[in-house]
Design brief:
Elements lengths: L9 E4 L6 E2 L2 H7 L9 E6 L5 E5 L66
Antiparallel strand pairs: 1-2, 1-3, 3-4
Keywords: Metal-binding, Zinc, Zinc-finger
Organism: Calocera viscosa (strain TUFC12733)
GO cellular component, one term: mitochondrial intermembrane space
Length: 121
C-alpha cells in the first residue's frame, strides 16, 4: 500500500534496481539511489495481478488501460490530507461513538404497553 497516493492502480518496476514500487516517492524512501528514467516501463496491474510493458515514447490515450482486464490505471492522484478526526471503530460496526448517553428513553414505555385502541377505528 502506498502512503503517498491512495488510489494507485498499478505497481511500477524500477529499471535501476528491478524492484516493484507504487510510486517514485516510495522508491526514494526505500532505496539509496535515484530512480533511473527509461522509455520502456513495466507495470503490474493491481486488479488482475498481471504485468505488462508500455513504451512511453509512443504513449497514447488507449494505453491508459490494462491490456488484460481493461482497468483504467491512469487516474488523478488522490493524496492523503491532514485532518483532525476522532479515532474510533467504523460506525457501521460499532456505533457507540454515535450514541448520546445523556438522553435516555423511558424504560417503562414500550410498544407493548401503549394503548392503541383509539387508533383501530
Amino acid at each position: 500500500m502506498c502512503k503517498h497516493i491512495l488510489n494507485v492502480q498499478v505497481a511500477i518496476r524500477a529499471p535501476c534496481c528491478k524492484q516493484w514500487f507504487d510510486c517514485a516517492e516510495c522508491h526514494a524512501e526505500r532505496s539509496d539511489h535515484r530512480l533511473r528514467r527509461t522509455n520502456e516501463m513495466i507495470f503490474l496491474c493491481k486488479k488482475c495481478k498481471k504485468a505488462f510493458r508500455k513504451d512511453m515514447s509512443e504513449y497514447d490515450e488507449q494505453d491508459e488501460y490494462c491490456p488484460h482486464c481493461d482497468n483504467h490505471y491512469v487516474l488523478p492522484a488522490v493524496e492523503p490530507k491532514a485532518a483532525l478526526m476522532v479515532e474510533g471503530e467504523d460506525a457501521r460496526v460499532d456505533s457507540k461513538m454515535l450514541k448520546d448517553e445523556r438522553v435516555k428513553g423511558d424504560a417503562s414505555r414500550s410498544i407493548f404497553t401503549q394503548d392503541g385502541s383509539s387508533r383501530l377505528g
